[in-house]
C-alpha cells in the first residue's frame, strides 16, 4: 500500500475512534438538534419519569417550530428505531454514540466526493499528478479537526455539509447531457433541485452555499447549448433561445424543489400537529394540514431576521466569521486560500465564490458561530487541492514546517473541542444512569449553574 494511503487509513480509523471516545461538548446543539428530540419517543415506559424531564428545545416547540423533524428523525430516530427492533436496550451511552457513529460513517461521503471531483477537475493532467492531488486532498481532509470532531457530531450543520457534498458530486460527476422521460427531464437539474430542498429543510442557510453551484449549472448548460449549436450552424444560438434554455433549467429545478418541499411540510405538519390525521386520510385531513402547515425553515428565517431574538443567543461583530471563525476552522489553509483568492480572483472564480459567497452572506447576520461555516470545508478542500503541487498544499504536505504547523493546529483543536471543552458534562450525565433515582431527580440543580444546559436523555 502506498505511504499516503497508509496514513489515510490510519486517519480514517482515528475518525471512527474519535466519534466514540471524544466526550467533550462542542455546543449543546449537538444534543438538542437531534438526540434530545428523538429520545422521548424511544425511552421505555419504565423510565417515564426521565421521559417527562426531557427538555424540548425551543426550536421544536409550537406554535412556530423552527426546525424540521426530518434531520433528527434520520440522524437519531432511525438508528434508535433500528436498535429497538433488534431488541437492544437503549442506554444513555447508546443514545449518545449511535448517531455519532452513523454520521462518522456518512462523513466518508465527503472523502469520496472530494477525491472524485478533484480527479474530474484535473483529468487533463498526467495520471501521476492527478492521483497526487487526490491523495493530498484526502490527507488534508482526514487530518483536519472539523472532520475528526464536528463531522462526527449530530449538528444540523453536519447534515448540511453532507448535502452540499452531494451537490458537488451531481454537478461534476453526473453526465450533463443525460435526460429521462423521453428527454424532458434533465437529470442534473432535478437532482440538484431535490438536494436544495433537503438542504433547505435541514438548515435555512443552505441556499447561500448552494447558490454558486446553481449558477455554475446554468453556465454549464448554456455552454453546452452554444457548443452544440455551433456544430450544426455557422453562428451560435440567439439570446432568446439561450434565455429560454436557462429558464427551462430553472423551472425544472424549481419543480423538483417544490415537490420535495411539500413532502417535508406534510411530514412536519403531521408530526407537530398529530391531530390533523385523526379520522384517516380524506379531504378534511388535507384541509387541516393546509390550515396548520409547518414551514420550519421559513419560521427559522423569520426568527433570525429579528435582532432582538439574536441578542438572546449572542451577537458578534460582522467580521467575526472572516477574522476568527474561518481561521479557527481551517487554520493556515484558509489564510493562504484567502490571499490567493484576493491576488488571483480570475484563476478559480467559481472555487473562490463557493467559499467567499456564503462567507459574505452569513457575515451579514450578527450571530456568528464557527460551525455555521462548516459546509465550506467541501469547496475549500476541492479547490485548494487543485493547486496541489504549489502553494498551501505543497507547503502543508511536503515541508517540515508546514507539516508541523498543520499537525499542531489540528491536534490542539481536536483535543480542546473533542476532550477539554465542557469535558466533564457528558461523562457525568452518563454516570447518572447508575446513581440512585433520588440523585437523578436532582441532577438539574447540580449541573446547570456551571455548565451549558445538559442533555437529559444521556442519563437514561
TrEMBL record:
Membrane topology recorded in Swiss-Prot or TrEMBL: Multi-pass membrane protein
The EC number(s) this enzyme carries: 2.4.1.-
Tagged with keyword Glycosyltransferase: yes
Keyword annotations of the record: Endoplasmic reticulum, Glycosyltransferase, GPI-anchor biosynthesis, Membrane, Transferase, Transmembrane, Transmembrane helix
Compartments (UniProt record): Endoplasmic reticulum membrane
Source domain of life: Eukaryota
GO biological process, one term: GPI anchor biosynthetic process
Pathway, per record: Glycolipid biosynthesis; glycosylphosphatidylinositol-anchor biosynthesis
Family: Belongs to the glycosyltransferase 22 family. PIGZ subfamily.
Identification of the protein by name: Mannosyltransferase
Source organism of the structure: Phytophthora rubi
